[in-house]
Amino acid sequence: MEPTRQLLLDCPADTLSSTAILERARYALRGTTRLTIEGLNVAKLVEARRDSSLLAALHAASIVHLDGAGVALAARWLRRGFPPRIAGIDLMDPLLALAAAEGASVFLLGAQEDVVTRAAAAMQQRHPGLVIAGTQHGYFTESEAADVARAIAASAAGLLLVGISSPKKEQFLHRYGSACGVAVAMGVGGAFDVVAGHLRRAPRWMQRNGLEWLFRMLQEPRRLTGRYLRTNLIFAGLLLREWWRQKMAEAPLSFAWDAFLPMLRDDTASCRHALFFLHRNSLLGGRVRAVVAALRDLRWLLYPPRHTPLQPSTNTVAIATLPGAAGLGTIAQAAAACPGTPLPIIAHPRMKGMPYYPTPVTIRDAVRAVGAAWRSLQQPNGALRRTIVASCQFRAALWQASWQNFLRHHPRIETFLLHNDFDMMSRTLTDIAAQKRQVVCVQHGVPTEEFFPTSAPIQLVWGEASQTAYHSLSPHATIHMDALGMASTPPSDAMPPLALHLVSQTHTRAYGLDLSPYFAGLAHALATALPPDKLRILLHPSERLPRAYYGLDPRYLEQAPHPSLQSASPRALIVGYASTALLDAARAGHYVATMAWPVHASHTAHRLCQPPMQYADAADLLADLHRLQTDAVTRTVWQQQQVDWLGNHFTDSGELARYVA
């Protein structure tokens, strides 16, 4: 099923038509699944940004449709691909017809007693054969809510319509929806008053022009004028801010990796990684970033940090282009696995405090790089922006000059060890050295699409699963397995997990979809069941202020680095989507699981990251967390499955030693 949920001004909403909603309701009424339907309007959106319980309830709903004209206008203005507005009262009528056709009874909850009774009679008159299982006024207290839910369950109704004002309506369905036992539950706001004739609905022309709110305000000016004025002003400010943010972050080229690669020429292949991600920035931001990066590389390579000269006898060096576990950590691990003296690591100039850096370029080299950029500006680049291409060509020419100078000064070096062969520093070295020297690329993470096609002729991968992936996507490379010591068996003691950790990935688009709504919904659902000391959301270093977790208690969020990914004390259940962190956590001895969310790109990498245990929603995940905490047999079986899974991923063969001996 295609993903439908988006975040609209930090609130969840689904891009479903009324036909699609009714079709899902039909499946639910036939016993296939359970469905909760909520509407989103301006007042509710503004209130949800203030009330975290309301926001959590919206995230927990199965479907959130655009109920108000204001949010529908915002969705069109922001070009989010939503269908036209679906007013709750317009969706309620065909839903009642569906219930009558499917033989499902209906329970009405909300409004005053006489109003809901008249509404029930009017519904039965409009839909012959409709069975009303029961009615209940909406003026009950929180202490009576559980009894109301039990009464609804006892009625055996298939459809529940809740005509209570927000946020009480959403909070009731969030807390007691399961206890009500209905197949479909829908919040309908003040629809009962309209159906019963207590309030008039706006004329058609006002509905068509988004003025229904004005008609309602004129009917109840004392109750609604102040609220509409306040919420509309706040909403207008939020919308303007979001429009400006989107304008600045709007990428005219939203191509996927497989559509991007054919756009490259032979002379731009060395820049493919930088070109792709710069084009994913805004129209202005991409160009600015490209120029800034070119000036930064010029400064770094003209005047690199002072460093220690390499020993004349050195014949193997490692290249680290990034800090962190995937960059310097991978290279340090590979260097430690090499025999003999410590392997020197040449670091990117951004990594301060390292002993070795690239060889400086000369003014003549810089002038030649300007020439390469100028020639690029004169050539057609198709859908690629010329400024970005020229800036990247300038950078590539600088790095090529730096490596040529390095090779001239160090003719004895025969082997280069890389942690990736696609960023600017590594790719230019590969282009220059691969024909006469030995270039070995060590796998640093799960191979998403940006890894391929590989450029280093020798690829050293973790194990059999990665080897199969590389062979299918880079058939011309020489591929060997060596996990560099990562194949150690995790702790076997079946200690129960004391907490649940969620590995966040809202920053990545490597899998072809926006993961923010999925992580937001799961995080809010888990936060309603677990306190901050039992739940941690492990943010990626790129997620400084993730908007997906808006409204969540900051105590749930943990910035990198994350000690729990390195040590299993205390033990935790660590859940993610498709991240190397899941492999790290399993190796450390944690219990790991993944969410069964859609994937549209990097399918091979996604499969490699999938541990045996997968979950569709928070309820199933929490149920298994409880089983892990209480049942030793479940823990033992789970651990054995993880050991088998890791065995397919990591093989320590000592293969690296043959290249650096």
Q: What's the mean pLDDT score?
A: 88
Number of helical regions:
26
Classification by helices and strands: alpha/beta
For the secondary structure, the number of strands is 20
| Helix content, binned percent | 40-55%
Query: Alpha-carbon distance between the termini?
Result: 52 Å
Biggest sheet architecture: 6 strands, parallel
User: What percentage of amino acids are in beta strands?
Assistant: 5-15%
Can you tell me the overall shape? Answer: elongated
Radius of gyration: 30 Å
The poorly predicted ranges are: 250-254
Order of adjacent strands in the largest pleated sheet: 4-3-8-7-5-6
Written account of the structure:
By secondary structure, the chain is α/β, with parallel strands linked by helices. 45% of the residues lie in helices and 13% in strands. The chain has 26 helices and 20 strands. It has a six-stranded parallel beta sheet, sandwiched between helices. Strands 10-9-11-12-13-14 form a six-stranded parallel beta sheet, with helices on both faces. Helix 16 (325-337) links the parallel strand 9 (316-320) and strand 10.
